[in-house]
Amino acid sequence: MKKYRIGELAKEMGVSHEYIKYYEKNNVIQCERDAESKYRYFSFADAGKVADAKRFRNLGFTVKEVKSFIWDYSLDTSLELFKQKIVELSEETFKQNERIKYMNNVLNCFPSGRFIDNQWYIIEQEEYYFFPHTKQNSFFLNENDSIRVQKWIDEQPLTSKTLEIPLGEDASFMDYEYLYGFMAEKDVADMLKLDTDKPAVRVERGRCFLYFFEARTPDGYCGNHVPPAVPYLDKPIAVMKQCGLVPRTSTGYCKVIHRARGDEEGLHYYAFYIPVV
Fold first, then answer.
1. Closest alpha carbon to 200 in 217, 179, 171
2. What is the pLDDT of residues 190-216, one digit of tens each?
3. Pick from 45, 65, 43, 42: which is nearest to 55 by CA?
4. pLDDT for 221 beyond 60
5. pLDDT at position 123, please?
6. d(CA 169, CA 235)
């Protein structure tokens, strides 16, 4: 049977010299060495291993798994690994689709490059969760909850930076101890396997008042730790009263859509989510 040097095999298979060396180093492909010249020689059968390695790697398997597919795994083991990989790829596809959805949603908030400031809608909001991690200007979670919130932070932007806001006639917007955290709809939380036990808060599916607004803050502004969104609460509350809308929860949520820089000022783009009866 004809033997091929590494460059010849690489050329015939449409891969690089380094590609062959990499899989040889990881024992996926095994060469023969000439005792005198030290040249590597590969058989025609190694061409199939090159193709198999590319196939399994493109499916997302590790080099170690690729080696075992080619040399060790039984049919039953291979099929079981395929089932596991389908679950993994399905989750990753879900995440990628949600990331695309997130960016499209941001773009939709800026038709013709301008924000949809002061626009509002009544929507049917799916069930969602809010996981707080900061109170006003300090952290308040215990050690276990701090570990749990790491997953929520890691999955941004599938989880959205969000501020809790008080509702009701006796709400004192400026003195309230605001909670910052992350929001995720139920289907996202379920797919990501987020921990939704307390301190996470569940908001049931139902009608929701959605109000978009832009806040501007000069450089160096701290506002006595009052969130930039708070001074803008009066507008959506006034619209709700005018429309006869009644909150069905004691708190609502303000989601961060985007932040950018202006001329010596910060530009903050938000949306209030207020569950209504």
1. 179
2. 999 999 999 999 999 999 999 999 998
3. 65
4. no
5. 96
6. 14
Contact indicator for 198, 129 with CB cutoff of 8 Å: no
pLDDT tens digits, 89-102: 999 999 999 999 99
Q: What secondary structure letter does DSSP report for 276?
A: B
Q: In the chain, where do the E strands start and end?
A: 4-5, 32-33, 40-42, 120-125, 128-135, 138-139, 160-166, 179-185, 201-203, 206-218, 251-261, 265-275
What are the angstrom distances between the C-alpha of 267 and each of 49, 215, 253, 274? 55, 6, 19, 22
pLDDT, position 258: 94
Two structure tokens written together for 214: 């832009």
Closest CA to 273 of 184, 212, 231: 212
The Cα 126–Cα 107 span in angstroms is 21
Give the list of residues 6+ apart from residue 218 with CB closer than 8 angstroms, or none.
264, 265, 266
**What's the token pair of residue 143?**
């050690």
Distance of CA 86 to the CA centre of its chain: 19
